[in-house]
Specification:
Largest sheet: 6 strands, mixed
Distance between the termini: 45 Å
CATH class: Alpha Beta
Shape: globular
Structural class: alpha/beta
Strand content: 15-25%
Number of strands: 17
Order of helices and strands: EHHHEEHEHEHHHEEEEHHEEEHEHEEEEH
CATH topology: Purple Acid Phosphatase, chain A, domain 2
Number of helices: 13
């Protein structure tokens, strides 16, 4: 394991938008005539988004990023994402046969300027550098839409080198509480519901997990249970059916990659009960110091798993490292048995076969807080280098300051900071299914 915390805080030239164009709000972004994105196009796209965040009122964003442009970008990326498997296999091999490095990124939560800095600091995606983003692109921060579409642009440009996984906040339920839906409505007005529906549809296509170089597993929440079926006792006059036993705590065991690949991920809100439990586990579960596998009663969805389960998973699948995200400084303040998130990461389990790491990439989080005392945490990303990829290099970084002044899109004084204690059982999966069925491209 290597560590580097000597990254300088962004200079004033980074914190203050370097764009010198006059009034970009009068020049809407346009799709390339040939339909192919380029590195120069994305560089300009990044600059425009950063400039707009400082100089264009939210309600005037459509003058820069029109609904037609936005719809094309989101749908193009969505079509790519929906074709990927639940667990993407990342083979970081360059054209010359040598290995490329892989950058793994945790939660970013709409903190656009910190994401732009991270991309610059780590080195942009390319032949020599793959990226795996571990979800939670939106909510809480004020620029969830800009952050998400910027990363979608990179995905369109380099679909086999940039991998975007789903986080628990890429859901209808969370985005209705933590600001993303309200953000879109404030920015796009009458067109907001259309933009929001396109984003939800894209969320459904985000893969759940990745395996990097055959030896590193990444997922937003972490591990997942086996959802098995057992034949019921025979009853005369009734058709045979199968009974789901995977959500019973006394029958819990770790799931397999075959089960992960078969899970139905295209749900707006992963269910907390029933047969399709794996997506909820992957997105919502947390590690624990207590051995075993048990329901995550604090969250009401997902699992808690101990070091013995980490060891079992690593050993069984010959994996050396698990990188998950999902817990920021607010969540870890309530879990004193585990490490804090001051540097943007913790090593939660060290076992014979490898390690479990929690990675969080949103510094000075959350952007809006009800108290004057802030967590003032650093964000971090991980670099995995060839040839073995199992020795993480940690890069911690400070938040870009000053952030542009903007109002929150959710009542942060009333809504709890952590995802714990949410009333997840109130999720109406029937309504979500109907919304899903009614959405079309």
């Amino acid at each position: 394991m290597s560590e580097s915390n000597d990254n300088p805080q962004p200079s004033s030239s980074t914190a203050e938008d370097p764009t010198t164009a006059t009034d970009q709000s009068t020049t809407p972004l346009s799709w390339p005539p040939d339909g192919d994105l380029s590195r120069d196009w994305i560089r300009n796209f990044t600059s425009v988004l950063s400039w707009s965040s400082r100089h264009v009122p939210p309600s005037q964003l459509p003058s820069v990023m029109t609904p037609v442009f936005l719809q094309r970008l989101i749908l193009t990326a969505s079509n790519i994402l929906h074709k990927e498997p639940n667990c993407v296999r990342v083979d970081p091999t360059k054209a010359d046969g040598e290995g490329a490095s892989v950058v793994v990124v945790g939660d970013v939560h709409g903190q656009l300027h910190d994401v732009i800095f991270l991309l610059e600091d780590a080195g942009f995606p390319g032949e020599d550098r793959f990226f795996v983003f571990n979800g939670d692109y939106v909510d809480r921060g004020a620029w969830g839409l800009e952050t998400f579409v910027l990363l979608l642009a990179w995905k369109i440009f380099l679909p086999h080198r940039v991998f975007l996984l789903r986080g628990n906040h890429e859901s209808k339920y969370c985005t209705s509480i933590y600001g993303f839906e309200q953000e879109i409505m404030a920015k796009y007005g009458d067109q907001g519901q259309m933009v929001y529906r396109k984003c939800l549809r894209c969320f459904e296509g985000l893969p759940l997990a990745s395996i990097i170089a055959g030896c590193v597993y990444t997922a937003h929440g972490g591990l997942f249970r086996s959802v098995t079926t057992a034949p019921p006792k025979k009853q005369k006059g009734k058709k045979k059916s199968r009974k789901i036993v995977g959500n019973m705590s006394d029958a819990m065991k770790l799931g397999s990659f075959d089960e992960l690949d078969r899970a139905r991920r295209t749900v707006l809100d992963p269910p907390w009960q029933g047969a399709n439990l794996i997506p909820g586990d992957v997105l919502w579960s947390d590690p624990s110091n207590k051995p075993g596998l048990s329901p995550n009663t604090d969250r009401g969805i997902g699992l808690l798993w101990g070091p013995d389960m980490t060891e079992e998973f690593l050993y069984k699948y010959q994996i050396k490292l698990i990188i998950r995200s999902h817990e920021g400084p607010d969540a870890r303040d309530k879990r004193h048995e585990l490490g804090g998130m001051e540097k943007g990461y913790t090593i939660d389990h060290v076992v014979t076969s490898g390690q479990l790491i929690t990675l969080f990439s949103a510094p000075d989080y959350p952007q809006f807080q009800a108290t004057e005392e802030r967590h003032n945490n650093q964000g971090a990303y991980i670099v995995l280098n060839p040839p073995d990829y199992s020795t993480p290099v940690f890069r911690s970084f400070e938040a870009v300051r000053p952030r542009p002044k903007v109002n929150a899109y959710y009542d942060f004084e009333e809504v709890i900071d952590s995802d714990e204690e949410l009333d997840l059982k109130s999720m109406d999966n029937g309504s979500s299914h109907q919304a899903n069925s009614s959405m079309s491209d």
